[in-house]
Amino acid sequence: MTGAEIMELTSRYVMQTYGRLPLALVRGQGARVWDAEGKEYLDFVAGLAVCSLGHCHPAVVDAITSQVRKLMHVSNLYYIETQARLARLLVENSCGDRVFFCNSGAEANEAAIKLARKYGKIHGGQDKFEIITALKSFHGRTLAAITATAQPKYQKGFEPLPAGFKYVPFNDVEALSRAVNPGTCAVLLEPVQGEGGVNVATPEYLKAARELCDRYNALLIFDEVQCGLGRTGRFLAYQHYGVEPDIFTLAKALGGGFPIGAMVAKEEVAAAFSPGDHASTFGGNPLACAAGLAAVKCLLEDGVIENAARVGAYLKNRLLELAGRFSFVREVRGLGLMLGMELSIEGKEIVGRCQERGLLINCVDNHILRFIPPLIIGEGEVDEAVEILAGVLAEMKQ
């Protein structure tokens, strides 16, 4: 099919829940993708931080191909080898002890919300159910997840929202201190906010959150759906801070492009769940976990995380050079290969012009360009991307 035919078919039959760019991608390899007409693009979106190993990484493709010939699904009525092995790998490389598998980041956060509520009631009584989140956060699109997401634009039209959520400014220790109380069962934070504009938590903020949770017997939950799994130059973003959560959530990069999510909790916290308290029919199926095993092993063993730290610093410096050239660039911020460029102008046109020149980038909050390329990206590809972006910014300046 041609790109136009794909777009027409989509417009006719697919529910209109996305504002799609006029582009139909049909193939990918490494950090590059191709549209239906064969045009090549350098991909600095990576499926929204999903394809951290690039597109069609051989290890992930081989794992999926091998597993699909043996067993795709059996349900969690039975024991699943790849699920157990992936859980062990995540636990051995984190502060967690137990893993619940699901299919997406929203589901992982729903599971964390349920576990925190259950733990709170067991250890603090029926009135210990409030969850505190940060303004400009993003935790998913299900009803509880958009309620936890402290951005009204995602909540409008879906009221009444579930009760028991309170919002505070991100990185404001005093506001957080005023908010946490004996009725708080959890504080849910992203160490690096993604959809909110690539806002990096300060060490003081996360340390204060840990201390407040300890003081009030509340759980500290880190949403690492976007910032985890090597994206920031560490396996998990919280490892930059020396602060351990009681629960953290993963998805996006966990399957190397295949859908899978996970909630990881410490032993005492995980014990609040009993059989029947939570479940997912497809969660932790053999195929998804085979993909996850291959992807996580590559992250840990092939120098991918180290590459993310090194090339992320290089990309940040190149973006800072552009900030020095163009007055409408307000700030460059982020960790590793999760970077944002805040503008004083809207970014939509810049995204479109970059696409025309063969570079895919993303814009959040109308005026923040987000750069989340595959973690295998090299300096040469960074130079290529920055050259294209510089040309577009120069046009915007005129």
* Beginning-to-end CA distance, first to last residue: 39 Å
Characterize the quaternary organization of these chains: single chain
**Strand tally:** 17
Radius of gyration: 21 Å
Low-confidence stretches: none
> Which structural category do the helix and sheet elements fall into?
alpha/beta
Helix content: 25-40%
The largest β sheet comes out as: 7 strands, mixed
Spatial strand order of the main sheet: 4-12-11-10-7-5-6
Can you count the helices? Answer: 14
Mean pLDDT: 97
Structure characterization notes:
The chain has helices spanning 3-13, 46-49, 58-68, 81-92, 105-124, 143-148, 152-155, 173-179, 203-215, 267-270, 286-301, 304-325, 348-356, 379-397; strands at 25-29, 32-35, 40-43, 98-102, 130-134, 165-168, 184-189, 192-193, 199-200, 219-223, 247-250, 261-265, 329-335, 338-343, 359-360, 362-364, 368-371. 48% of the residues are buried. It is built from 14 helices and 17 strands. It is globular and about 60 Å long. The longest helix is centred in the last third of the chain and has 22 residues, at 304-325. α3 packs antiparallel against α11 (286-301) and α4 packs parallel to α11. By secondary structure, the chain is of the alpha/beta class.
